[in-house]
């Protein structure tokens, strides 16, 4: 039984991937039948017209029939994140909270009000234009690496290096929207669920020790490790599309997301150490760039105007640069600060060679030494 369940889950991504094509084929067949039925009246049916505006049919896109799941006009009501998942939303938030607590103990969070207010306002605007079903908590990390990551349940961390690397607000919004898309699609807990089903299906039934429900409950109690933030190719492609849709819905130019990673790809050859981090969890290869450019043309209707940059972003970036430069001048928090050390008090001796602690400063002369290994002595004047 577990083997069958595992096979069904493994087959789910393939079926989900094939569904948009089946929907398009069905729609085209329906249109052809309608055209044939109306041929006697010489009425032409558009090739990409939806049948009777039914919500279950693909919506009209710029160049083709867009599946309802990725119809940008239906954000928030598209079933994004649905599917087999051992984790409820409440459990996912709890797991994310635990992981966020671990992150907070390992990083230095920037507490500057200006930076935090801006990043939170930008992030929450993108969240409102997304399919996310959980609230987001957004923090800025003092880290030069060009990266950002969102934990399950909406706990979002943005590196200062990402803010400084972005040339405009649309580039920053594009990367943040991509991370929000991972949470909205519940990629982390879905990945964990799928891996657990694979493991369960590969075990002999004798080791399960109970019904399938018990096995699921045991798997649901596991904590999602940070390694699950490295998603599959299909998950990354979906997050690219969803993220650009969220960025587009918030008014930004979705092409800025692609341009940002193309720019980093060129600079990566010269500045590998920091920029390579941006590609460790989100490898933006040529295939993904080409796919993202195609998705913009096929899924996002063109607009006359896009929001590209704001003066607030440039002000915050300049302010953050001052904060980071000040931090570098002060140095890291360690024990290497200058410290005063008290020198030992020299021993005073009389002419007879006996110690005399009552010697007055007026009777002191310049210390004389007879060798490097001898201590200085003070002698009384006759």
Q: How would you portray this structure in words?
A:
The protein has helices at residues 2-37, 89-106, 113-128, 160-165, 169-184, 187-202, 212-220, 233-249, 255-267, 272-275, 277-280, 286-299, 311-330; strands at 59-60, 65-66, 137-141, 148-151, 155-159. The chain has a domain at 89-329. Residues 1-5, 7-60, 205-224, 333-341, 347-352 and 358-372 have low confidence and may be disordered. It is built from 13 helices and five strands. The N and C termini lie far apart (109 Å).
Radius of gyration: 33 Å
Sheet with most strands: strand arrangement = 3-5-4
Work out the number of β strands. 5
Query: What's the overall geometry?
Result: globular
Helices and strands, in order, run as HEEHHEEEHHHHHHHHHH
Helix content: 40-55%
How far is the first residue's CA from the last residue's CA?
A: 109 Å
Main beta-sheet annotation:
3 strands, mixed
Determine the strand fraction and express it as a percent band.
under 5%
Mean pLDDT: 74
Name the descriptors:
382 residues, mainly alpha, two-stranded antiparallel ribbon, 13 helices, 49% helix, globular, disordered N terminus
